[in-house]
Design brief:
The complex is a heterodimer of chains A (about 250) and B (about 300). Chain A has about 250 residues and is an alpha/beta fold. Chain A has 9 helices and 10 strands. Chain A has one domain: 3-Layer(aba) Sandwich (Rossmann fold). Classes of the chains: A alpha/beta (about 250), B mainly alpha (about 300). Magnesium ion binds next to helix 1 of chain A.
Chain lengths: ~250, ~300
Amino acid sequence: MTWTPDQPIVSIHNVKKAFGSLEVLKGVSMDIMKGEVICIIGPSGSGKSTLIRCINALNDIQGGSITVEGQEVHDDNLDRLELRKKVGMVFQQYNLFPHKTALENVMMAPVKVLKQNKAEVETRARELLRKVRLEGKENSYPGELSGGQQQRVAIARSLAMSPDVMLFDEVTAALDPETVKEVLVTIKDLAAEGMTCILVTHEMGFAREVADHIYFTDKGVIVEHGPPETFFDNAQDPRTKEFLSQIL
Amino acid sequence: MSRMIPGLTAPATTDMPVLLPAPTARHTPRALNFSHWLASIPPWVPFLIFTAALLWPMMALAQGTGEGKPTPLEALWRWMPFLITRGFVFTVLISVMTMLFGTVMGVFLGLGQISPVKGIRVASYWITQIFRNSPWLVLLFIVMLSFPFQVTVFGVTIPIPDWTKAVIGLGLPIMANISEIVRGAIASVPSAQWEAAESLAFTRRQTLYQIILPQCIKRMIPPWMNWYAILTMATPIVSILGVEEILNLTRQAIEAENNRPELLVPFYGFVLLIFFVYCYPIARLTIRLERKFALKL
Ligand SMILES: Nc1ncnc2c1ncn2[C@@H]1O[C@H](COP(=O)(O)OP(=O)(O)OP(=O)(O)O)[C@@H](O)[C@H]1O
Ligand SMILES: [Mg+2]
């Protein structure tokens, strides 16, 4: 039962999820290995956000199973603290804490939740902010930062918990085209360092460049998946072809 | 800001029905009606009315006999220190203690309204609704008449003075309104903040105290002050139950002056004026803070 790195770090098996009578996920399965970068693409409302929110138990599921490092997520006895230490998440709307500076945003969870030494956390937080190229913005409040800068603080904030897996839900969708790039560069750096990343994105060029595997979802099912080259140049399913023709 | 929105602030290009914007949240700062009204009064108006109230009976008296009795102004002047130091100070004391009681209880009740435990949530909701929507005077009577005038704990008899009961009786509706302020302020923080905290492994309690409340505590201050001003204005109703606050002492003062009818208007007018002098700055400050906090999140 103990997890070893040769097994999938995140394993999703036949997951079913409904909001009331609305079936959003109708049996989704995927396996993600440690260090892999996978992109989930698909039309609006196809259940992409719902799926990745299930991975860190922000949503519950009605059927199937999700394991993270061998630990079943949808178990009543789940240790949520353990799960959320392993899985970081970045949202489309950044969701920084507006009453805290950039540095405090990054430091808060390790200090308050993990009870780590404040001075050590601060050193690490400054390093993380440097890594997301925000040196000099440590003492700015979220309201004083651009969307792209806020999103990079949000990434640093998640990284401060030293997660093993990062979830990104359309993290560039609220940004203007110039600032999209700076956030994508940050994610690319992370991927290059071997972080396991699960991304929902509409940035096809980016997906093609960084992803090891692409999943296309529509109406709660995975229609097609494969490595980027085959997926983008040789899509089989008519729904995938139609989606790609609209977006590319 | 000045951009016209077709169908809302400008003619629409079609006559198709449009979806109107959702009504604003229940807890908009605009709810501070009382303070807005009070703060909008120019400060000289009450003094003008008071002066008129003072002069009018004097002129009426000047035409009469005038058997060496003190004029209403002289009588009032004599009683003023007593009315202020004994009466009004006690009134303020009652209002402050009521506010203290109401705030402490109201914060608990408000947090109860968002409790994850359904029983606590439902109970808090109903307690809030009942006390918020009951006539204050009825609540005051119930507390006054149902509480004993003394309790005996371990053989020690502790008297419960009337003013303590007044504080509890008036404190109940205040408690319920503070509960709503707390609930509303917490609800005004976007749910995405809860989710962000949750994904960073914060527990519910940590999220509430370290992330949600620090963001909305400022927003609670103007409505809280608004309720304090309303409460202070309402405090004289405890005089009905014999608490020796300003209204009762004023009546006693008039009685001591042989119940001369020309004293009524100046004396009670003076009481009205003290309340204004006390509550007016509070209302102005409330409105100032409301504007200030509305700018920042
Ligand atoms: N909390 C909720 N309650 C009810 N329905 C919901 C809830 N969250 C999502 N849904 C519904 O589930 C469906 C899938 O939503 P989801 O957000 O997962 O889509 P998505 O693929 O992320 O879309 P988008 O690209 O627009 O973000 C939608 O029809 C949505 O209306
Ligand atoms: Mg989405």
